[in-house]
Amino acid sequence: MRLVTYTFRGTSRAGAMLDDDHVIDLARASEGGGDPLPSDLLSLLRAGDGALERARGALAAAQRRFANDADGMRADGIAFDVHEPGFAFAAPIQRPGKALAIGLNYRAHAAETGATLPERPIVFTKVDTSLSDPGTPIHVPKVSSNVDWEGELVVVIGRDARHVSKAHALDYVAGYMNGQDVSVRDFQRHAATWTMGKGFDTHGPTGPYLVTTDEIPDPGALQLRTYVNDVLKQDSATNDLIFDVPTLIEYISQAMTLRPGDIIFTGTPSGVGQARSPQEWLTPGDTVRVSISKLGDLVNPVIAEP
Ligand code: ZN
Asked: Residues with Cβ within 5 Å of ion ligand 1?
């Protein structure tokens, strides 16, 4: 199931992809079957496995109805065409409880930066104001031009996880999204912690889909590609991860409880702009796209910070 947060004429709601061109509103589609489902994905995930199962049921029923009553479903505000005016995708998880990220987590990326392979995951945070939506502009900030792309697989947690072993870690995952851990390299070097360089406004888009784990049983078997202006810049299998998704969950949950809707950017593969010769940076007018197997395309234009 591809879960989404969509906005229509300014209102943001939880939905699911009916097919590649249509979204259903989960709360409205579930009316008549007991309490309607929550109208935002964070609440849906926090409501547990039962709510996800009901979402699956509502989607299946909507697919059956859509085959012969598409117009009625549009009129009822249950189905939307993703191309219609006023419709947009938003980051699937709006305001996650926490957004973590992993540095230097692909072998070839560690090599291209000249870093030695880390012995343990390098965990940092993406601050709330850095998180942003598909389609919305990434800013080249007033104070730096060293803006780099980092296409990443993002994990969305589905159940409270504390002291979880690697062997069971994937049971705690709700699904996966494309992500872009935009990085301001000069600010990243200002201090030992990367909060500033990774924390600029608009520098953490995710989406457009949160694809549930039934469709992605193995997060280590995906292909991740990043394009700038349709030129391929990053192309890596996620099996090049130094610390795979189960290992990250085991390690992080030793310290903190991971909660439903928490997100983890798992690190970027080789091919970033900083490591190129000559170095390349995102500039206003560029378009950057992250495309991971089964997760769709996350596309963001680049503009000068207004
Ligand atoms: Zn990163």
From this structure: 150, 181, 268
